[in-house]
From TrEMBL:
CDD domains reported in the protein's UniProt record: PBP2_UgpB
Record's signal peptide: 1-29
Top-level taxon of origin: Bacteria
Coiled coil: none
Protein name as catalogued: ABC transporter substrate-binding protein
Length: 429
């Protein structure tokens, strides 16, 4: 390190780090400030647009709060560029973000720095993070990332369209199945003009429905795509969403949809009566379609004991193994996941906070029905896809299988059988 002793001592006090932990954290490729001023670290993040502006405000708050570290924020929404930098001998950033299901694969490759020493030094209460999200943060007994925000998925609906069709918000899968045809319209040529149940992302929708039918996509020994609940969910989707309108008509409808989360978004524009999507919809609706009336309810469960089933994903922060400034990056990471910055970030982006203790904060009161997503995220039936070395390969194969299900080119059993055949080639479980 290149920091004079008095500067080092001041930095340690500001960071709350012990000398022993600094030694452990700074087993890196150099870094630290020189005698002339603070250390500059680079925070390369995937967010852009309004989300990036909100993040830059938090970075500015941190920089103004102390004199030893200057964080330079860089919006770089390119995951391949991110991975290339992390895999090189000379990385271009010191802290970054991604989704929780990448942690296992990246940690197994040795490109993430373990955070356990930093967590202890900064006195970060990991027990306060949402449990289903923290499951994705660990690999081989060590923590490699921390969630700044989490996401859950619920059923949004257009109350005007439901009322016109004589439908009340469904509470069971049978009710949901019965509502879909009443809310679906076609013109004389067979072209869909209104869809009963839409999907923002087929993979997310179908894995989430798997949980609602009591399935699980991962077990202790690896992927479990052929569980009964998963197959039931896929069959339900084929039977009730795709087959009544036809795969070709569905593909044509989807290809003609307006841009996601724009004013022409199919849900905001009334082309889709119901959709399974995340909590960010609340903030987006307020900004993009302020006059649009909508409601949200729990995803109907196949049986009562599966009530409030949902999928939880996490926006996570990590330090790459090739960072030259690990101790300073750890200090900044601890700041980002502390209460006030995390809450500020979550409110600005319309995301659920990564800490359970912030879920009921009054700061979220202006976001319509936000508590519905928060309640689901803390439910015992909230599940996450595993974050393991095989996760990227598995996700790719599941996406292919789901595409076959949606296009009606394979039965659920046939599509999932192909995934099972490929599992033997996956990276170590």
């Amino acid at each position: 390190m290149h920091m004079k002793q008095h500067m080092r001592r001041r930095a340690l006090v500001a960071a709350g780090l012990t000398t022993a932990t600094v030694v452990a954290l700074s087993g890196c490729a150099g870094g630290g400030s020189d005698a002339d001023g603070p250390t500059e670290i680079t925070f390369s993040y995937l967010w852009g647009g309004e989300e990036a502006k909100a993040l830059e405000a938090i970075i500015a708050d941190f920089n103004a709060s102390q004199d030893d570290i200057v964080v330079k924020g860089v919006s770089s929404p390119d995951t391949q560029k991110q991975l290339t930098s992390m895999s090189s001998s000379n990385g271009s950033f010191d802290i970054s973000d991604n989704f929780g299901n990448t942690v296992g694969a990246w940690a197994s490759k040795g490109i993430l720095a373990p955070l356990d020493d930093a967590i202890a030094a900064e006195d970060i209460d990991v027990d306060d993070f949402v449990p289903s999200a923290m499951e994705q943060m660990t690999y081989d007994g060590k923590i490699y990332s921390l969630p700044i925000a989490i996401h859950s998925f619920q059923l949004l609906y257009n109350p005007q369209l439901l009322a016109e069709a004589g439908v009340t918000p469904p509470t069971t899968m049978d009710e949901l199945a019965a509502a879909i045809p009443k809310l679906t319209k076609k013109d004389a040529s067979g072209k869909i003009t209104q869809l009963g149940l839409g999907s923002a992302n087929d993979s997310t929708t179908l894995t989430t429905l798997g949980y609602a039918f009591g399935g699980s996509w991962d077990g202790e020994d690896g992927p479990t795509p052929a569980e009964d609940g998963n197959l039931e969910a896929l069959q339900w989707y084929q039977d009730n969403v795709i087959e009544p309108v036809g795969a070709d008509a569905m593909a044509t409808f989807v290809s003609g949809q307006g841009e996601y989360l724009s004013a022409q978004d199919p849900f905001f524009s009334g082309q889709v009566a119901m959709i399974i999507d995340g909590e960010w919809r609340s903030a987006s609706a307020a900004k993009i379609a302020p006059d649009f009336e909508w409601g949200v309810t729990a995803i109907p469960a196949a049986t009562p004991e599966l009530e409030n089933s949902t999928q939880v994903t996490a926006s996570t922060l990590f330090i790459p193994a090739n960072s030259k400034h690990k101790e300073e990056a750890a200090t900044f990471l601890a700041y980002l996941v502390s209460d006030e910055p995390m809450e500020k970030f979550a409110v600005a982006l319309g995301n659920l906070p990564g800490r359970s203790s912030l879920a009921g904060s009054a700061a979220f009161d202006e976001l319509q029905d936000f508590g519905v997503w928060a309640e689901a995220a803390s439910s015992p039936n909230a599940k996450s896809l595993a974050s393991r070395p095989y996760s990227a390969e598995y996700a790719t194969d599941l996406a292919t299988a789901f595409d076959e299900v949606v296009r009606l080119t394979a039965t659920p059993e046939e599509a999932i059988a192909t995934v099972e055949e490929r599992m033997s080639s996956y990276s170590s479980k």
